[in-house]
TrEMBL record:
Name this protein carries in UniProt: DUF3576 domain-containing protein
Pfam families in alphabetical order: DUF3576
InterPro entries: DUF3576 (IPR021959)
Organism superkingdom: Bacteria
Length: 170
């Protein structure tokens, strides 16, 4: 065996073993950014976001709040409260419902997705998607949702969010 081959056989396993012990952890950096983002939140329902727990007694370190407008969040949940909730992410501003069938129209069902885009109470800070299906010979067939219905649902949510904001004195 040549001495280069012996050297390679010795160095390759040594390099592989040494690479296994190297750990890359960006968790400290992520936590720091997260703490900076939420460190000034100190009210339960502010215009920008809300915090959980007893905010009045906290020293504002490590508080976690939602990343979207709390009035839009609450108004959205209140507006679709009659529908079964599939998922709600207050940090990403995503609310997803499961299929809902009204007793008045048993052959149709709808599903609503709501995305809250920011921390300001603005009309363009809300995106609503409605999915509609109709029962045809035992199978659910997708139907296009009426854009006017989507607009009407957005208006209801925005109106309720403004009323919540006024009630809260902001």
């Amino acid at each position: 065996m040549s001495k280069y081959l012996r050297l390679a056989l010795f160095l390759i396993p040594l390099c592989v073993v040494s690479c296994e012990t190297v750990k890359v952890d960006n968790n400290d950096e992520i936590l720091t950014r997260r703490e900076q983002k939420y460190k000034n939140l100190d009210t339960l329902f502010s215009d920008d976001a809300f915090t959980f727990g007893n905010a009045a007694k906290s020293d504002k370190t490590g508080e976690i709040g939602i990343g979207v407008n709390s009035f839009l969040w609450r108004a959205s949940l209140d507006t679709i409260s009659f529908m079964p909730l599939k998922s709600a992410d207050p940090f990403g501003g995503v609310i997803l419902t499961d299929w809902y069938t009204s007793s008045e129209t048993p052959g149709e069902r709808i599903k609503v997705d709501i995305l809250i885009l920011g921390r300001q109470l603005r009309a363009d800070g809300l995106k609503v998607s409605i999915f509609q299906q109709k029962l045809d010979h035992g199978q659910w067939i997708d139907q296009p949702a009426d854009p006017a219905t989507i607009r009407e649902l957005e208006d209801i949510i925005l109106t309720q969010a403004r009323q919540l904001r006024i009630k809260n004195g902001k």
